[in-house]
Fold this sequence. Notes:
Elements: H1 7-11, H2 20-30, H3 32-52, H4 67-81
Helix pairs in contact: 2-3, 3-4
Amino acid sequence: MDQDGSAWDCLCGQGGYQGDLQGFLLELEQKPEFRAGVMLQALSRLRDVLKSEPEDAALETMVPLLMRDALVISRALLERLR
């Protein structure tokens, strides 16, 4: 699998990203009760990463985030826009 892709590539279903993450997203669609727990975990990890950054860090400072967490959060935001 190409490691240079983005969470957006996976969310859009690009060919090289039809793997574990696509299966994970399908499972999220099929099991709403699973979605709430996964979202809480993703937001908790995001909060922990942001807390580890200094308060005076520049806005464009990159923070490490699991692609899976980025997918869960972006998918939830996109569902709200529908």
